Amino acid sequence: MKLHYPLQFQGSAFYRITIQGKITQSFYDQLSPLEIKEKAEGDYIVTILSLQIKDQAELSGILNSIYEHHKSIISIEAVDENNHKK
After folding, report:
1. How many CB atoms within 10 Å of residue 1?
2. Can you give the pTM of this predicted structure?
3. Whole-angstrom Cα distance, residue 63 to residue 76?
4. What is the pLDDT of residues 21-32, one digit of tens each?
């Protein structure tokens, strides 16, 4: 994978996190503001979370929340904020 922009350990970045299944309203409220898309992938629903994360510590907290909600992570991708809706 080739990065087209620099990432910094302590800097903010825009991420797209894909998980298996739907998220609950309480989980959504924890992560606001974010963009959510749900789509069918074969027999499963996947949820794509797109959000600005202020640093790696916040990313770690979000990943822990996904784990605590018993959701399987399919992918995590840092994306260019200007092109995050692709």
Report:
1. 4
2. 0.80
3. 10
4. 998 888 888 776
